[in-house]
């Protein structure tokens, strides 16, 4: 969060922060893809730091000083991605008048690398968030908990059980020594809470992305 702290002003550590954002986004994408559905896999693989990286990259790519309208922010985003960053192109012209063409070219390449890394990081982060949202709901489809009941059970002797790895559940193979009563519908409050929170974070992210407001994404998701 510290290295991704959003500021529109460019500095020499920009490419390092952009690379950090890309690597962390790639790591989260891999975790979300390979996560094995299980009891708390939603919580342990939910990439809540991704919106912060997305917001930071939007701020950098749109040069968000708070003085641009909706269309201007989107226009600036495409300019930066296509290599027409208004800031370093203006800087190159200024430095050229001082006969420092070599320095300005190297600076432009350095800043161009920053823009490309941030563009790629933004895409990877959005992909990870989207796949994460899809897997959250697909994870829930593995369970038919809405129609299940939770009962108070009594075990009169040792019983034979087996362990189901996918759902992290204990399966009783012999029910002859088990009695149960006081059954109530099972309401998976924790699981649904995590799903609702993740969906809300994603919707906030989507609204901020459409409006191209990085600070809005940072504020709401923080």
Could you describe the 3D structure shown?
This protein is mainly α. The chain folds into two domains: 14-143 and 188-221, no CATH class; 147-185, no CATH class. It is 60% helix and 10% strand. It contains eight helices and four strands. A two-stranded antiparallel ribbon has the order 1-4. It has a two-stranded antiparallel sheet with strand order 2-3. Helix 3 (50-62) runs antiparallel to helix 6 (101-141) and helix 6 (101-141) packs antiparallel against helix 7. It is elongated. It starts with 13 loop residues before the first helix and ends with a helix. Mean pLDDT is 77; it is low at 93-100. Keywords: Membrane, Transmembrane, Transmembrane helix. The chain crosses the membrane at residues 12-34, 116-137, 189-212.
Tell me, what's the shape? elongated
Strand content: 5-15%
For the record, give the distance between the C-alpha atoms at the N and C termini, rounded to a whole number: 10 Å
H and E string:
HHHHHHEEEEHH
Characterize the main sheet. Answer: 2 strands, antiparallel
What's the number of structural domains? 2
| Average residue pLDDT | 77
Helix and strand composition category: mainly alpha
